[in-house]
Specification:
5-stranded antiparallel sheet
Length: 263
């Protein structure tokens, strides 16, 4: 007769932690089995070539920097198309950090706008006296509408220029800032990356596994920046309700296929 040895956990919490760890390991094992089965019966095209990248083969990479690079080769009428996909674990930043980064970017842009307007006034290119009317006590609605219509094209040009600058920073970097970062995002240690696919990390709620491109395409960055600057800023503070998608993604993140992560 075989006797099964019973382990004394002492507390219910210790038992629950052990069961939770066993479930996570079982799910990871099942995921690897499913992945192996899928690879065995994958189609011929596109061809997936996966390789673990380690810049120093003699020393293992830390867990937070471990990543997998996958080359996707697709065949179409124009010939083979090579695409690099990087799979890496990231931490999703909090909503407060994203708001702080946006506030810093706004203050920095506002400072440069003030300097630009100052030089335009000194060079007598624009006249601010016509806008002083809105400060008077006897201003009427017609005057406010006329002034607003006169400023509309300037505000539109300002938002387009700011969107182009932000898109350039995200896609190519600017003045030493890394790709995916504006000055505010860099100070808050967050960045924008492309998002081909996203999956949660088992046992870690604040981390996700993201498959991404090496950099965000400029077209996607431009769409993201223009939607955010032209639509979201107008809806403030109601635009905060549009951030509560999965993994703190906003509407413009989903439209541009991007996600904001910590680094």
């Amino acid at each position: 007769m075989n006797c099964v040895e019973r382990k004394n956990y002492g507390t219910a919490k210790a038992y629950a932690d052990d069961v939770r760890q066993w479930v996570a390991l079982t799910q990871a094992w099942m995921l690897e089995q499913h992945r192996g089965f899928s690879q065995a019966f994958r189609p011929i095209h596109p061809i997936n070539l996966q390789q673990n990248i380690n810049p120093n083969p003699g020393a293992p990479l830390p867990a937070q920097f471990a990543r997998r690079i996958m080359l996707r080769i697709g065949i179409n009428g124009n010939g083979p198309q090579l695409q690099t996909i990087i799979t890496q674990e990231y931490q999703i930043p909090s909503f407060a950090r994203r708001c702080a980064a946006e506030l810093l970017d706004f203050l920095i842009l506002f400072f440069w706008k003030m300097i630009f307007v100052y030089f335009l006034v000194e060079l007598e290119i624009i006249d601010l006296d016509q806008y002083v009317k809105i400060l008077a006590d006897d201003v009427d609605l017609t005057t406010l509408i006329d002034i607003t219509q006169g400023l509309f094209h300037l505000e539109l040009c300002s938002k387009i220029i700011c969107g182009i600058i932000e898109a350039y920073c995200i896609s190519f970097g600017f003045l030493g800032y890394p790709i995916g970062c504006t000055p505010g995002k860099y100070l808050m240690r967050i960045q924008v990356v492309s998002c081909v696919s996203i999956a949660p990390v088992l046992g870690q709620r604040d981390k996700v596994t993201i498959s991404r491109l090496p950099s965000v395409p400029f077209g996607s960055s431009l769409v993201r920046a223009l939607i955010k600057n032209s639509v979201f800023n107008v809806l403030f503070p109601l635009n905060t309700l549009l951030y509560f998608f999965s993994y703190n993604r906003a509407v413009y993140d989903i439209a541009a296929k991007t996600i904001v992560v910590s680094f």
